[in-house]
Amino acid sequence: MVKTYADLFLDARRALLKQEGQFAANVARELVCAASGKSAEQIIADRELYASEEVCELTESFVQRRLRGEPMPYILGQWDFYGMTLTVTPDVLIPRDDTVVVTELAIKKAMYLEQNPRILDLCTGSGCIGLAVASQCVARRVKDARVTLGDVSAPALRVARRNVAQLHLTGRVNCVTVDALRPAQDFLGTYDLIVSNPPYVTSEEMKTLDPSVRDFEPHLALDGGADGLDFYRAIIKNYTSALAPRGYLCFEFGMGQENAVCTLLKKGGYEILELKKDTAEITRAVLAQKKEEF
Prior knowledge:
Elements: H1 5-20, H2 24-36, H3 40-45, H4 53-67, H5 72-76, E1 78-81, E2 84-87, H6 98-110, E3 118-122, H7 128-139, E4 146-151, H8 154-166, E5 173-177, E6 191-196, H9 203-206, H10 211-214, H11 230-239, E7 243-252, H12 258-267, E8 270-277, E9 283-290
Parallel strand pairs: 3-4, 3-6, 4-5, 6-7
Antiparallel strand pairs: 1-2, 7-9, 8-9
């Protein structure tokens, strides 16, 4: 049944009210906009016009998906991160504010690397970190900086490639299939900076994750093993050889993992240069430098 845009919005808000509370109107507006391809301003201007049957059906399907707990980025098919609008699907983690911390740490270091730096975003997912670094290198004219987005997941790399194209960064960024749990392949060469937001949720924590994460986001990108540190051990072991002499390794990690990650880095031949906190004063990222003897 077709409805006016005003009724379409009101019905969506009413359906979402119990679950979304005070945010029901905002969520309903976003869903109607996504289903119709109209902006919020256009929806208001067209409120007395009838939406097509297709738009009405699509809005209803979006509302039902939200009521089942599906995260908004997957319903909308995109999400904003560090000034970029990225394609997001259930094949990749949703970019979160937590990851801004490691992104800013990597960008700051990238600005002061030697000329023509090579940077690897390992376990890239949507490509959000590496693409933010690349876009800032372009904006700040870091000459010939090259970024590689690496992931073991073919579906994730398809999303990353789409984001590279959408952001017009194909001249700066390439995507490759790499497994952080296996030795770095020779074709990769060496990098001046490796940045990674690897899986770091412990096996026990996986059981108690919020359903919006546990039931919808890819476990491959979440599960860090019994203590959450499997990928940190593997990356330090397997990718130190892919770092240039005195190269840099930058990690995101979970709440309370900073000491364990720093210990692994020190044992692996790195000097800790900086730890960075998020807006909630939780330590979220580390920058370390490879020692000369390694």
